[in-house]
Amino acid sequence: MNTQDRPAVPQQQPGDDDLEPRLPRGELREMAVSVIVTLGLAAAIAVTGAASSGVPATVLLLAAPAVVLIGALVTGSRAYGWWRTGGHWQIWQGGMWLLLVIFLIWVMTSIGIVLAE
User: Fold this and answer.
1) Which helix (H) or strand (E) holds 52?
2) N or C end of the chain, less CB within 10 A?
3) How far apart are CA 32 and CA 38, in angstroms?
4) At what angle do helices 25-51 and 89-116 cross, to 10 degrees?
């Protein structure tokens, strides 16, 4: 192939921001708020469960990771929606994976605490 037949590769000059992908700060902020609200609600439920005793404590200690799981499923559905529209779905998928990892850690810890009672 001749070098004249190849398309020109744009070269980035210092100060030229046209080639860098723009970070969608609005979507990133929405995802961060969603994750923080989910974890805050789950933490409030867990603290309430730790302050109570008996069956309500057991229910609340197991409800806290369930809230995180629901939050992960919601962020996963938002990622799918953004993927369908051609948006920045990777941001929401990252939030989903973060919440799923936190869910797994939290549910294993909660089950250990409930079984120890």
Assistant:
1) none
2) N
3) 10
4) 10
Amino acid at 115: L
**What CA–CA distance (Å, rounded) separates 67 from 45?**
9
21/90 Cα distance (integer angstroms): 14
Nearest in space to 67 (alpha carbons), one of 33, 39, 94: 39
Provide the pLDDT for residue 54. Answer: 87
DSSP reduced 3-state for 24: coil
| Tens digit of each residue's pLDDT (9 = 90 or more) over 59-91 | 998 999 999 999 999 999 999 999 999 888 899
pLDDT score at 10: 58
Q: Are 58 and 46 in contact (CB under 8 A)?
A: no
Q: Distances in Å between the alpha carbon of 31 and those of 65, 80, 82, 85, 97?
A: 19, 14, 12, 17, 12
